[in-house]
User: What shape does this take?
Amino acid sequence: MSTDETEGAGGRDTTTGKREYRMADLAREAGITVRTLRFYRERGLVPPPRREGRIAWYDGTHLTRLRTITALLERGHTLGGIADLLAAFEGGRDVAELLGLDGASPTPWSRETPVRLGAEELADTFAGQVTAENLAAALDIGYLAVDGEEFVHVSRRLLDASTELVRAGVPLSAVLEAGRRVRAHADALAEIFTDLIRTHARPEHTVRTLEQLRPVSQTVVDAEVSMAMDRHIRANADTWTQDTAPREDATHRGTTST
DNA sequence: ATTCTTACA
DNA sequence: TGTAAGGA
Assistant: This one.
């Protein structure tokens, strides 16, 4: 019982140096009991270990998984919720590869900077709204991808926007649904601009002109959305001035002269 | 004999 | 989730 082998305990791969743990070792490292480890495994929260006869060998991924579970548990999540989250977690694995986010993909076609997030960091950002449904929706839209034991948001700007909306009281599910609708309209807008060039520019100049079109189209959309927001804010102002903006009407006077 | 599972509390 | 009993 007094074998204090902190690093050399258990079996380890001599070629890669990956540590492996037997049940008691892993449980001790994760700060849980063996019974709890078994409990998690029965519910699918922990992937099956490598079986060598009757001995179960766990590795570092199991350890990080257990630490994730513990962190989520301390944050108030239920075991069932964690199970759902981890299920979606696994389900999005191929999404990251599809987007080329886990490897060294240059992604020259996107100017958005990805953001890496730990699972608990993500849960903390959206304050208990990271349900399996929301996670699945975020993965489906392409906002979120999974890389190893971490999440990757495809756009810092969109992540910040989502965070701001949620903090303003908008449910995350509604934010995601809105994002889905915006995505559809954005696609339609991009189609308008690209079609414009495809039909009017000569084929050999098409690609280059499309790239030049990017900032122009963004400017047009930005201006149009800005003006449209003006119109809609004014149109609905009387509806929600009661609890949001008590008395501010003079600021929306001179908008645009059309 | 050790390690893990089953079953019971 | 702890513990005792049993299979390999």
